[in-house]
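Hi X.,

You mentioned you wanted examples for the new student's onboarding notes, showing what a folding record looks like when two proteins sit in one file. Here is a clean example. The first protein comes first, with its sequence line followed by its structure tokens.
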Amino acid sequence: MKITEIEVYAIRLPLNEPFVISYASYDDMPSIIVKLTTDTGHVGFGEAVADDHVTGESWESTFTVIRHTLAPQLIGSNPSCFERIHEVMDQAIYGVPSAKAAIDIACFDVVGKAMGIPAYDLLGGRYHEKFPITHVLSIASPENMAQEAAERVAVGYGSLKMKVGTNIAEDVQRIRAVRERVGPNIAIRVDVNQGWNNSANTLQAIRQLESSGLDWLEQPVKADDMDAMVEIKSKTSTPLMIDEGLRGVREMREIIAKRAADKVNIKLMKCGGMYPAMKLAHMAEMAGIECQIGSMVESSIGSAAGFHVAFSKKIITSVELTGPLKFSKDIGNLQYDVPFIQLNEKPGLGIEVDEQVLEELTVRREKVIG
């Protein structure tokens, strides 16, 4: 089996409502879709959701890198040789993890379809039967966040992830308001997205939140300040999760060596796809660090890929892949049984891509043919 054609689509996914985090606000979600075709006639889809602040890539640059750098190098390659595919991509260009993730995901999808097995069987088989879904609250007023939290709990959600990171005093009010509204038995995870900047600010906030019973605090400081995470971890009993500070193997080695976090948030867009994500999970497993598969607000394609990784590893204990629930129109049909998700046993990613909707949302499209 060889790759004969790679088509690249730049699309914009419409959101039900704006998504607001500490460093950006999105009215829609820009995404790059890859359609990979083999000489056996099988077709696989992949996705890249770039983030200027996290992966150092933009929507426009990712399209260009895939179209002009990665795709031409991969025509004629066997998509099942995952290690070699990544070697070719790494030799072609340094970094650009979300661009490489799009190719990686498409390879897993097409190989699974060709072999008639789900993608998780290519990763060692299925371990988890289902995962609870965490509802993500984007930044708003304390009252609005508390009201949205109460509405989600009423329909069955047992955990909430709060986006904060604008102003410590306001963030503390937001967290306290949500905790007061939903009661003590709902899990609350707080994601600062680097917004508290340093350890001093973070420790000040944590002291004010000791009675709020947080499940964990995610990436409160700048991504590259690993020593600040070490200091915070040594001075609080609130579990710490690293997100933006973990991109690949180098950062994972440092996290393990310094014991800089209790949990890590692995994202396919940060590390380069499903194959590198499994390598990071194996490293974390050896160090006894629990993992989460997180989201860059991908469509059904990228979200399904993340779920296949999550379902295959015991050390992956939580997921936050809720992008498809936020879109008013999606290109795929990933099925949620809110507040849970249970993957099917269909080949590849197990989803169907509506190419008519894909065309409708496409802003730009180009094709590379062998």
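Then the second protein repeats the pattern, sequence line and then tokens:
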Amino acid sequence: MASKQMVHMNQGQGERSYARNSGIQNAQQKRMKLLIERTIIDLCSSSSSLLPDKMVIADLGCSSGPNALALVSVAVEAIHGYCLQLQQPPPELCVFLNDLPDNDFNTVVKSLVTIRRCNGPVVVTGIAPGSFYERLFTSSSVHLVCSSSSLHWLSKAPEVLTKNQIPAYYIDEHARREKLPMVLGAYAQQFRKDFRH
């Protein structure tokens, strides 16, 4: 899969780095805050009257810079808030950040210090480099998976479209409308296939 080696963010902290040019992604992540908080409440309340002793959270496609910890930080805070509300001890948390190997993990590792809490439960952090189309974690080990601006990357273009040389988007509006159901269906099928494995 050649694309996983070609697609990556600009590294470092410079003027053209992803860290300085990711405002749109940051806005998307802020809109996900309520969804993550609700998911944590559903996850914690469905497990039983007591929370599990340990919980694992993963962010697929974390990238680097100020957005790298945004989603998992919301999840960690939501878990802490839920536990405070129920007056239960919070579980030990393990947070994994994932992106392609060419990601600027040096910048990510430096930011991991901010997620650790001095007065809360232990938050263990780790990096899981690699494509999320490959196995990254042991079976049944992750409680919550977050992702923003990365799951739209499929492992490959749908075969039915490439075999028939059908582009994902036609400039001609008539052709676009005619082929749209087939194109949407092909991409949806490829997405389901990618995430079944």
